[in-house]
Amino acid sequence: MTRLLVAVCSVLVGLAASADHHKASVVGVWHGVGVGPNGDESASTMTITKKEGKLSGKSVNEQGDERILDRIKFDGKLFHVEIDIDQNGQSGVLGVKAKLGSNGELKGNWFANDDSGTELYSGEWGAVRNLSKVVVGSWNVVAVTDDGDNEHTISITKEGYRYTGTVEGEAGSLDLENLRVKKNKLSFEFAYGDGTVKVAAAQTGPTKLAGEWTYFDSSDQDLGSGKWTANK
Question: Residue 137: left (phi > 0), alpha (psi -120 to 50), or beta?
Fold first, then answer.
């Protein structure tokens, strides 16, 4: 079974499932990381699509090897994906069982079974969305304040590797500063009054962000914060 273990290490993090069930969906691009039998971490990029009600997907590991996801199951929260492998005359199944959390992340375990269904190896596995694929464009924002909901929009563009953007509301348009996108995380700030509003959020759905805004005065003292959400 040594050759089967080699196959496991090459693709073990290239697995996951995606589907729409009510409002839940994990269609899109994901960063996956799995822990191997020896404790080593391995990363991959996973792309899930849905066409005519059918889910399909592929995974590309750090070496550029691509695998097609053969079977995908989703019940609205639980994901079960399998890839059939056949290497040097040995066949088996690589898979992932994971849950979609309220934070929009997938967490669970990968497994490797032989052709009789006996589990040979397993380990921790998790994945977060790739926000860079959808972040560009206009987002409708709701910031919860003591005076009620503040509704406005933010617009984000990208030139090369650099992101820029603006926030637009009743007071006009302001430039977003220190705008950063990393995996499923978004952060930025903008001047407001005599202070600065800082926003930190994460992608929780295909086109949904959730996080928190915080207002700092000119002395960088925290004067207030609240829930921040955005939809595209």
Answer: left
